[in-house]
Amino acid sequence: MAVYKDGTTWRAVYRYTDWQGNKRQTQKRGFATKREAQKWEREQLLKTKAELDMTFSSFVDQYTEDMKSRIKENTWLTKEHILRTKIVPYFGNRKINEIQPKDIIAWQNKMINHRDEKGKAYSPVYLKSLHSQLSAVFNHAVRFYGLPENPALKVGGMGKSKSREMLFWTQDEYSKFAYEMMDKPRSFYAFEMLYWCGIREGELLALTPEDFDFTKGTVTINKSYQRLNGKDIITEPKTPKSNRVVQMPDFLVDEMKDYMQRLYKIRPKDRLFEVTKSYLHREMDRGAAAAGVKRIRIHDLRHSHISLLIQLGYSAVAIADRVGHESIDITYRYAHLFPTTQGEMAQSLNKIRGGENNVSEKQR
Q: In the chain, what are the helix, strand and coil shares in percent, each to the nearest 5?
């Protein structure tokens, strides 16, 4: 360990032995004072020894090193943004082993009372996400670095997990929308896949010709598309259960054959829909307005597919398998989409009870 004068600033150099026994060196330049360089040097020593007498900011660096390679890139970018913009600025200079539940409460109140330049507060779902990310850092410190307890867990969460109400289109509403999309084949076929197969937006944009088996009438879902930092990224699907083979209705098989024939010299591994998510959102705006139907989100087409399958009488287990839900509990959340279902159930029960009354009368 050493601190050097480096022109008009200071430089700190820290040498250490890593977990494989290799000699390593890290350094940082540009410190205004010798004291700042020495402080950075001490933080590196604490991180190497995995001691929690370090600042929260330094531990987040350690957390990043431990976790970044284990999490999908797009998920990590969201997590990192929250850490760097909403959490580290508040706790960064505090020692992680000195942060108390009362400090968490003060931070929660700051987040709850935040308003942007338009006076808009953070949504309940976003507030819950903020707390979850903070708690994840403390959990990591507890599990692997000997922190006695998680102060965020002791305080409890904020916000709510439930997002805004699911919207969906009936088959009639979708048919009106699809008719307006026919002037742009690429848009039409993209929305056909979304509505009739219930796939996710990222899964749609990752589809290639080799994913289709027209003999069996199936499409294989085994990847997802993301646009990250200006680059097209193909990742694993959202969950392991998302890897699946979806049986297409016959008319959709014919439509996708027609679409692929329109694509000049497309190769087996080329993306079928080389558009962005923002393109699909704009097309959704255009089609909904032209069809005179309510505007729903792209993801609500997946809700619409699931609601249609429930209406057709398929079980939660079968639907979960088709759409790649990790648990059938997720599928059960869609029950509220059918206000008529309770009425139909009651009518069926009336018929049963009516039969029982007849039996009772005979027994009398």
A: 55, 10, 30
Q: Is residue 354 situated within a structural domain? A: no
Q: Which of 1, 66, 8 is nearest to 40 (CA)?
A: 1
> What is the count of structural domains for the chain?
2
In a domain, 9, yes or no: yes
Say if residue 36 is in the same domain as residue 141.
yes
Average pLDDT over residues 76-95: 91
Instruction: Say how far apart CA 10 and CA 38 lie, in whole Å.
Output: 9
Boundaries of domain holding 326: 171-339
What CATH number is given to the structural domain containing 175? 1.10.443.10
Strands (DSSP E) found in the chain:
2-6, 9-17, 23-31, 212-213, 218-221, 224-228, 231-235, 244-247
Name the 3-class secondary structure at 350.
helix
Residue 162 lies in a domain: no
- Taking only Cα atoms into account, the Rg of the chain, rounded to an integer number of angstroms, comes to 28
**Can you tell me the distance from the alpha carbon of 325 to that of 317, in angstroms, rounded to the nearest whole number?**
9
Q: Dump pLDDT digits (tens) for 58-84.
A: 899 989 988 888 888 778 888 999 999
Neighbouring C-beta atoms of residue 67, cutoff 10 Å: 15
Residues, the chain, total? Answer: 364
Return the minimum-mean-pLDDT range out of 17-31, 104-118, 236-250.
17-31
Query: Which residues on adjacent β-strands are paired with residue 24?
Result: 16
Cα gap 332→315, rounded to integer Å: 10
Q: Model confidence over 129-167: pLDDT tens digits? A: 999 999 999 999 888 887 888 999 999 889 886 655 678
Q: What is the pLDDT of residues 1-36, one digit of tens each?
A: 577 677 888 888 767 655 455 677 777 888 888 888
Q: What is the DSSP string of 99-151?
A: --HHHHHHHHHHHHT---TTSPPPPHHHHHHHHHHHHHHHHHHHHHH--S--H
End-to-end CA distance of the chain: give it in Å, rounded.
98
